Amino acid sequence: xxxxxxxxxxxxxxxxxxxxxxxxxxxxxxxxxxxxxxxxxxxxxxxxxxxxxxxxxxxxxxxxxxxxxxxxxxxxxxxxxxxxxxxxxxxxxxxxxxxxxxxxxxxxxxxxxxxxxxxxxxxxxxxxxxxxxxxxxxxxxxxxxxxxxxxxxxxxxxxxxxxxxxxxxxxxxxxxxxxxxxxxxxxxxxxxxxxxxxxxxxxxxxxxxxxxxxxxxxxxxxxxxxxxxxxxxxxxxxxxxxxxxxxxxxxxxxxxxxxxxxxxxxxxxxxxxxxxxxxxxxxxxxxxxxxxxxxxxxxxxxxxxxxxxxxxxxxxxxxxxxxxxxxxxxxxxxxxxxxxxxxxxxxxxxxxxxxxxxxxxxxxxxxxxxxxxxxxxxxxxxxxx
Amino acid sequence: xxxxxxxxxxxxxxxxxxxxxxxxxxxxxxxxxxxxxxxxxxxxxxxxxxxxxxxxxxxxxxxxxxxxxxxxxxxxxxxxxxxxxxxxxxxxxxxxxxxxxxxxxxxxxxxxxxxxxxxxxxxxxxxxxxxxxxxxxxxxxxxxxxxxxxxxxxxxxxxxxxxxxxxxxxxxxxxxxxxxxxxxxxxxxxxxxxxxxxxxxxxxxxxxxxxxxxxxxxxxxxxxxxxxxxxxxxxxxxxxxxxxxxxxxxxxxxxxxxxxxxxxxxxxxxxxxxxxxxxxxxxxxxxxxxxxxxxxxxxxxxxxxxxxxxxxxxxxxxxxxxxxxxxxxxxxxxxxxxxxxxxxxxxxxxxxxxxxxxxxxxxxxxxxxxxxxxxxxxxxxxxxxxxxxxxxxxxxxxxxxxxxxxxxxxxxxxxxxxxxxxxxxxxxxxxxxxxxxxxxxxxxxxxxxxxxxxx
Lengths: 385, 455
Fold this sequence. Notes:
The structure holds two protein chains of two kinds.
Chain A: H1 2-5, H2 8-14, E1 20-27, H3 30-38, H4 46-63, E2 68-74, E3 79-83, H5 86-89, H6 100-103, H7 115-134, H8 137-142, H9 148-169, H10 174-182, H11 187-203, E4 211-218, H12 229-242, E5 246-250, H13 256-264, E6 269-271, H14 278-286, H15 290-293, E7 308-309, E8 316-317, E9 319-323, E10 329-330
Parallel strand pairs in A: 1-2, 1-4, 4-5, 5-6
Antiparallel strand pairs in A: 2-3, 7-8, 9-10
Chain B: H1 6-27, H2 30-46, H3 62-75, E1 90-97, H4 111-129, E2 134-141, E3 144-152, H5 155-164, H6 176-187, E4 195-202, H7 213-222, E5 226-231, H8 237-246, E6 254-256, H9 260-269, E7 286-290, E8 294-302, E9 309-315, E10 322-323, E11 328-329, E12 336-337, H10 340-344, H11 347-350, E13 357-358, H12 361-364, H13 386-389, E14 402-403, E15 410-411, H14 413-423, H15 427-431, H16 434-443, H17 447-454
Parallel strand pairs in B: 1-2, 1-4, 4-5, 5-6, 7-12
Antiparallel strand pairs in B: 2-3, 8-9, 9-10, 11-12, 13-14, 14-15
Helix pairs in contact in B: 1-2, 1-3, 4-5, 4-9
């Protein structure tokens, strides 16, 4: 019908593809990068990797003029924003971004670069340098893990903020922002209402909504993140609720919880066999956004490690003991049968007990006795002291 | 928000009034709540929403409106964060009233259709919050108890069964006793480490029972079944008695819906796992469970549970038999197999995030932007103006900053809401926990405290 009266072109112009927000979490744990660099076969220095990631970010920004990126560093002792850093978000009382934020920094050198590319590159590198400078020897020595849970939470907070801002700025979102802020009901219902608005905001097939996704570039191994099991799982469930896929690009090792993260949120998990080809992997596998992914066969893995971390020793286990009250996981039955988390006395069943060992029957070599008493076995001699 | 018109503001404050009543109903003890309820109607009529609006210095009401909005966001956050012992493995029977009384149109579109819609949402939300629990659905129609769906842990089954009820019409009188007895039968096999609960959505003001319902109540108490009721019309004495007796003298599980919103809240409250009372309701036990990993095979093989050829599945972590779905019990060695993500989903009940505190202007100068999302806070005004904005609305922070008491970082209201309701992590604590965990690692064993603050 529309084609007949030529109103079709209005609709096509009204249905611009929704912009997408890509949040990249870079695992900047120095230990893991040093190991990766030492590897003779698959050398990938951090500087090269960062350059590749910046090209990938630019590619994402180039896909749509309204696309956004955010970069979080998950360092060995803290999680920090690389882009946008607090200084650029600072606005005037009028709500305008301060002009000095990008004007002062050596703009003259790179006048021919697209402004957004330049800002991202400058901020990421300078913030990363600051982060590395602030890392003392003690920090590196003390922990070899990475703050993945914190980085994930920061990324989610930013996504939440941008989703709200986008919905408020665009007409399509004003009803959702209204329901979000005006219903003064209690938690559950509001959470539900908000979830549904977020769902419509991010998941609607229409042009509405900012589409967000998270890409984790991980180098640390699994054992490091076992003590953050609960916060990471909380982050994963939040992503699941908000329909934010978590893509994982694993440069070395294998991470249990990140596999679960991408599986639960329908993201892509790739363990790179050739880390030197990072850029190609990024461009080929991780660039398409949610809408294009519907039409693609994703290179994700099907076998997923679903093991959990125990609460008592933070071991990663595949068979555990679970408290029926609080569902805490233990790798061995707790002492006295008291749950370490909730303190309930637990009915142990037979788990703690050692299996009854049947004493091995001493089979003596029986010599055929000449006197014929073999029918009645000789009593075993009393064991000596 | 500044361009909102008057009607919109009015809407907010009215809802707030509602909410106060609702809270009173649930929060206070029995007699107090009754009093509140009687008074509630009058209060509701007399609330003069326009009087709460005060013009700001610039002659607009935008500041007040924003204050109201923020206060309403904040209010629903301030809840109890005591980590209670909760029964997380639950067995719930949902009983829906399908009698004549449900045709009333006081809840839009009708009580019947609204109940069915909310029941479906309830089932979905319930399994979101209690993934390893079981639910069953019954109906009360024509004096009989009607089985809508059997006890099971699969939400889609229940939702489609409830969906089918839409084509039928409510008729006859309900029999509470029949419904309770059938629910009791359904819960008979529930293992002792789980909870046994009944939730009744009751639209009628009467119950036509074949026998003595008090006898049924006694047997329910003996079987340690807790009953919660959501009334749609008015309070019914037997319902209150039923709830009080089966919940150890606590009648907060009985609520009467004031409107659609309130009805929904009452139902959704039940999805939170109930606190375990100190008097032993159930014996707790240590369960051995396996967390199998998913595998994929090139050629299909038979699964041990259904003997169907599948080319992937989960291998039992003890005996390596292949099962095709989770949760399941290993058919060969009897180990309970479960996805660890199912367990992890309920951990935020165990380690709730502490409420964040409001920051007065005195301490506001420490931060200029939200730690998590980087939005800038309003600048600290000169000291003379501090008292002007103080005590504007209760529960909200004058400086728009909220502080986590553990990591001392400041956050905005949106991040506060997001952190407490969706992600259940504190961005600040998670981002710098290594300072703690350094000495944790050295001390080795005391990870539990750390988990308490972080989870």
